[in-house]
Amino acid sequence: MATTAIWDVKDRLDRVINYASNPDKTENLDFSSRNLQGLQNVLEYAAREDKTEMQYYVTGINCDPSAAHKQMIQTKLQFQKKDGILAFHGYQSFAPREATPETAHAIGLKLAQELWGGRFEVVVSTHLDKHHLHNHFVLNSVSFVDGKRYYDNKATYAQLRKASDRLCKEYSLSVIENPQEDRSKHYAEWKAGQEGKPTWRGLIREDVDKVIFASMTFTQFIATLRKQGYEVKTGVKYIAVRPQGKERFVRLKTLGENYSEDAIKQRILQNRSPKRQEVLPEPRRKRIITGRSTDRKKTRKLKGLQALYFHYLYKMGILPKHTASRKQTHFLLREDIRHLQELTAQTKLLCKHRIENAEQLLSHQSMLEQEMAGLAADRKSLYHLLRRCKDGTRITEYKQQITGFSKKLSLLRKELKLCTGILSRSEAMKEKLSQIRHEKNERRREEKEHEQRSRSGRPNGQYEP
Known about the structure:
By secondary structure, the protein is of the alpha+beta class. The chain is built from 15 helices and eight strands. Residues 270-296, 430-465 are annotated as: Disordered.
């Protein structure tokens, strides 16, 4: 079973491939720009050694993979089309343990050759770093034959899917019998769904399902959504909702076939009796304190960034529990459950190195960069020795040392990326927590005013003259 998708590359890919590696910069042409460098980023990502088993499964069609960036840009310059969409990033994923690396790469090559090989430069890379093998295609947006652009639309995507299914059948692999259209999904949403992580549209769908299940009328459905913090647009062509903390409304019909207004009303009609989920109160946890009182005083109090991260995880419902509880969690925090692995890694880094503020974080980041520079220099000298060496034993030793340096550099890059993520994420976390506090205070103020108005009122609607 192979799933397929394709997206356009317009920028530096910070938004699309946010987990791209940070390799050494390669020589760039004088006419390069931030946009054209984005093409280099996606090519480097597709050919990363840690994903492709030392690049054994990276092949170029109408181009050399090692020089694909320059060749694709030369094509754009030749036809004066270096603006707009730079390339297309295609994806073909196979079911776990269904295909071998050789089979997956062969299918990817045949697919790319059939669809694009006659007119476009393509890099095909098979990634082996997940349980499911998957192919990445980097397709130049401009044809080297006639300079015409490739247009990605429903028709061309249907060709991609049809060709992929046919090739899978030829290699005795399973196919999706009733494929669902994912074309309207953003890359991040589609990827999160593939990895089983929540998306904010998925959270809306989950809330809507629960409210439908507990409603007896459509009016009750709207009222319950509003009680849960949603702003609801009614009286328009398509009913739309906006969750807490979001700027844009979402039309319910875009969540699926079962979420149009008529479909929701039909689902509510099926509720012959109220079917409310019984919520059992959680048993109080006994707090057990062991040791002397002097031992308790030795516990280090969290400060700064460490305190921020622990408080944020607590508000998300992760702490002190080990699983996320979405029941009373604010919508802005619920959607961050998709980044739980990254949040946990950042929290561990802060605690491991006892980093409390931005100054300490920048100092640690600088230390990592210096260590990486030293390792890169040592690895470079080994490459020079390897090129001159003719002794087989020494060659093996050099290769082992180079592999060791590469692994260390990979770990340091990941830690450096965590540091960079903490700097940007911590500000966003503060803003979200501040917004949640503001909303909570506003809600309390409104409730207090409502209570005061109720107390100052007179029975039977009578007021003092």
